[in-house]
Every structure is written in structure tokens, then in C-alpha cells.
Fold each of these.
Amino acid sequence: MDVIIFAEFLHGILRTVFFQPLAGDFRARQIGVFTGILIILTISYFFVDRIRAGNNRQLFLTGVLWLVLTVAFEISLGRLLNLSWERIFEDYDIANGGLMPVGLLFLMFAPLIVMRLRNKFPIRYETDKR
């Protein structure tokens, strides 16, 4: 989880520095949800084995934990940066174009999604004799 949070933190910095001046703040955050999904799925793909989940329920519960920890981090960081509650929850307001719930949905299901991908497209190491 800490790898995902760190990667998303860097993603936010890079989005703000390079993309926000071109697209504007809110539009950059909207697009950032989709690039963030790719980051989450990529990291999850390579680290899902560390979860050691024995079944789909455990994978799902891991995703729920990731969701809770991410929302707690987002809110804490927003408050630390003196963002208003309105600004923090702007990204969660689907009716007004906020796409964070879409990203969180993917985050919650990422362990299940990548485990399915890995079962269909397993990583092959040089030591594998298959």
C-alpha cells in the first residue's frame, strides 16, 4: 500500500507541475484519475503476491482496506495543506465532474483485477521451466 501511496503522491506532484498549467487544475485532476488507475494496476500487478490472499474475499477486503487508507490519507494531506473541506471533496462529487470515486472503485478492486490478469497472463521468470 505504501508503494501505491508514494507513487500516487509523486503522480500528483508531476501532474501539478507539468499538466496543470496546460489543462487547468480541475481538468488535470480529472485526467489524473485515469493515469492514477494505470499506476495502481501496474503496481498491484507486481506486488499482489505479497498480499498472500487465499481467496477472492481476502483480495476484496484488501482492496477495501486500501480504499479506506487512501481516503484517510487524501483527507489528512488536504487538511495538512490547509485545503478547505469543499476543495477536498470536490474530487469526490461525481455530479460536478469529480472522478475520484471511479479511481477509488478501481483501487478497491485492483487486487482482484490483477490476480485475474496474472492468472491469465502470469509473469514468467527465467527460472520458470514452463
Note: The radius of gyration is 16 Å.
Amino acid sequence: MSALGRLLALPPSRRRLLYRAAVVVALFRAGLSILPFRWVRALAERPRPRPRAPRATPDELAWSVGVSGRRIGSTCLTEALALQALLLREGHEATLRLGVAKTEAGALEAHAWLESRGRVLIGGPESARFTPLPLPNAAHPPA
């Protein structure tokens, strides 16, 4: 079945979730290429102005960001920030993690993942080999 066929076979609620995630992933991908990281991070951490009951579960949001990210060609950082923004706007907990590890050749590698309530939602099992870095509080972008 083609990608379009699989998309059309999804229930409407899942399609809407996927469309929403694709827009957010694309916006964060563009933002990371033109804005300072601290500004993009501050945008991801901006909670929704008025609390409301969550509509989508953390797992549903992680699925939608993962699928969208693969199609868009995003990085782990883009997906982690996009998922953080979606989770916080739905009223869920979200913690961005950045980590580093050395390859066998001695080069440094970096990885981003996102946790919610102590569980890695995006960034997968490979996050275990990375040493998490302390992240300062995000500075809010100028108004």
C-alpha cells in the first residue's frame, strides 16, 4: 500500500493528529535553521495559555511526530522539540534531554530525546548510551 493509501486508511482523528504534527515538525525544522537554539527551545517550552483536558495521549503524539519526522527528514532535535511543544500544549509533562557520547573512533556524537514522566517517548533506546547534559533554563525570545 502506498503512503497516501495508508494515510487515507487512518481514522480521521489520527489523520488530523498526523497533519498537526507534520506542521509542527516542519516549523521547528525551519526554526532551528534560522533562529538561535535558545529561542526555538523557548518556543517549544511555551505552555498553552489556558489549561484544558488533554485530547491526545503522549504515545499518540510521539507516534505522529515520529511518522512526520521520517517523512520530512528531521533530526532527533527537531522531533524532540516538536514533541515537547505538542505535549505541553496538551497538558502533559515533557522534558527535553540532550546528550553526548564518544564513538569507537573517539569522535563526539550528540543526541536529543524527549521524556515524559520518566519514560523516553522519542529518541529511542539509543538515548541510553548518551550522557545527558545539564540544560539551563530556556531564555524567552524577545517580544
Note: The mean pLDDT is 87.
Amino acid sequence: MARTSTYLNFSRETEEAFNFYKSVFSSEFSGNGIARFGDFPPPEGAPQFADEDKNLIMHIELPILGGHILMGK
């Protein structure tokens, strides 16, 4: 079955936006749920994430209508 995905990028409001979409579409997050920057170590040689950024969303998926998936970061 074909699937369409839309990837949305937000500065720092991803979680608020996706919780709103979740309520509008009466859906639940799919995949591995919510992946946050603090859940993964930074790549070798990269600086550590700032404490205020560790809780930001790295990736999120929400199935909506007709097999369409909203994804974001």
C-alpha cells in the first residue's frame, strides 16, 4: 500500500504542534514514539547538546487520514 508522508520542521514547538495534531486527528504517535535529542549521544567529534535542547524532538510520526503520516522535528 502506498503511503504519503509530510515532514514538518519547527524551531522549538514541535511537541506542542504534534500534540495539537494528535488531538485534532484522534490519533497516536507511531514508530518509536517521540525521539528526543537527549536520547542519543552526539556523533563522535560533535559538541554535546545544550541542556535546554536535550528535550527537543529529533523525530516524531503521527498517522492521520488515509495512511498519510505527519512527521516532524
Note: Helices lie at 14-25.
